[in-house]
Amino acid sequence: MRVFLIFLAAGIGTYLIRISGILLLGGPRQLPERVKRSLVLVAPAAMAAIIANSLLLEGTQWRAPGAWHIAAAVAVGVALWKKSAGLTLLVGVVVFAGLLAAGL
Amino acid sequence: MTPPSPAFASIGREQWRDFWAGTRAMTPLMAGSAAFGLAFGALVRTVGIDPWTGTFASVSVAAGASQIAIVDQLRVGAPAVIVVLTALVINARLALYSAALAPVYAAFPRRWKLGLAHIMTDQSAVMTVLHADKWPDPVRRRWFIFGVSGPFVGVWVVGTVAGIALGPVIPEAWQIGFIVPLMFIAVVMPALRTWPALTAALVAVAVVVLTKDLPYGLNVLLGALAGIALGSLVPTKPVPNVGEEEGPGGVETP
Fold first, then answer.
1. Given CB atoms, is B153 within the 8 Å cutoff of chain A?
2. Which of A34, A91, B35, B109 has CA atoms 20 to 30 A from the CA of B41?
3. Alpha-carbon span A4 to B174, nearest angstrom
4. Which residues make Cβ contacts (< 8 Å) with residue B29, sequence separation at least 6?
5. Residues A71, A74, A79, A85: what is their CA dihedral angle, to the nearest 10 degrees?
6. Count: domains in chain B
7. E-strand spans in chain B?
8. Are residue B186 and residue B202 in the same domain, yes or no?
């Protein structure tokens, strides 16, 4: 029951976070140009932050260089080259699996 | 119930097509979502959390990183308030997506805003902002977004249930966690087409690693905010050739 209530509270709080900007900034009035320019940058900034945190770090430690970094670099290359999310994921997974199998 | 009129039926078909277009755009990422759900479900089972509660977690919170953090904290016996707050700090970045989606959702009826908000994730939010301009009609746009967001959360939940039922079928040695940076590399690279976006990404990477000792994943939030702030100072001009730039995933470890 305690665990259920914790997930319930986290779910309600997360929903309020999810709805916040949509309700607060979603009115009929036009947003200032500066705000609009900032909002466009949310996706690249947040994504890059998550990538850096999950790829370069392990908790608060640096991740030891190896399969993660190489496979990610290959994935970045594929994404720039083909602009296909599917191909990027596929090549990334295959290269990563290959590197792990090779003992990296 | 009266049978739907032919006009309604034809609108229905178009809506279904738009929904499907969204789902198709997300299909490769859905494989990642399912695999990650499987891993979360296995974690739930390993820790000994009630299967219904574990499933409820994926339906109600629907944000993987925070759910894993909750389970980790429960395992070490953290107080409930701390557990919930940690999850909310990790999910605070969703408020940024929510703000970014406000203009995209502006013309939607309130019930659509309330519904689509719950199924908004990192991946679907980015896919939505990248494609919204191609869907100027608000009705078609919301069906497209529904198709982007709904099935992605759906396979997350299905993956969770399967993981709870099957247990840890994915060996530890496979390091399934790699799916996280990989998925985000796949979604974000097309968005790095302008100098402000590129600046935002690189600043975010730098701040995340410089503040790596902060607790509760605060470094991610801080990195995102710093990236947005500094990126917005850069004048907008398209990058001549994105291929020459290092993306965030290619940054070297010192």
1. no
2. A91
3. 30
4. A85, A89, B123, B127, B152, B183, B186, B187
5. -30
6. 2
7. none
8. no
Number of domain units in chain A = 1
pLDDT in tens, B4-58: 555 555 668 889 999 999 999 999 999 989 998 998 999 999 999 999 999 999 9
Cβ of B227 within 8 Å of Cβ of A40? The answer is no
Task: Determine contact: A44 vs chain B, CB below 8 A.
Answer: yes
Set of chain B residues whose Cβ sits within 8 Å of the Cβ of A80: 189, 242-243, 247
Q: Which amino acid is at A33?
A: E
Domain assignment present for residue B26? The answer is yes
Q: Residue B160 class from Cβ within 10 Å (0-12 exposed, 13-18 middle, 19+ buried)?
A: buried
Find the closest chain A residue to B216 by CA distance. A59
Residue A61 located in a structural domain: no
Q: Do residues B206 and B141 share a domain?
A: no
Instruction: Give me the domain span that covers residue A16.
Output: 1-31
In a domain, B48, yes or no: yes
The complex scores an ipTM of 0.91
Q: How far apart are the first and last CA of chain B?
A: 66
| Mutation site, B36, B185, B212, B239, interface A, largest A CB count within 10 A | B185
What is the reported pLDDT for B22? 96
Q: Which domain holds residue B222?
A: 192-254
Measured CA to CA, the distance from residue A69 to residue A4 in angstroms comes to 37
Question: Is residue B106 in a domain?
Answer: yes
The answer, yes or no, to whether residue B197 has pLDDT greater than 70, is yes
Which of B169, B190, B211 is the last residue in one of the domains?
B190
Among the listed residues A89, A73, A59, the one whose alpha carbon sits nearest the alpha carbon of residue B253: A73
Asked if residue B78 and residue B18 are part of one domain, the reply reads: yes
Q: Could you tell me if B57 and B126 lie in one domain?
A: yes
Residue B1 forms part of a structural domain: no
Same-domain pairing of B142 and B203:
no
In a domain, A17, yes or no: yes
Chain B residues within 8 A of A83 when measuring between CB atoms: 189-190
Co-location of B73 and B180 in the same domain: yes
Residue A12 Cα to chain centre, angstroms: 22
Q: Which residues pair with A57 in a beta bridge?
A: A62
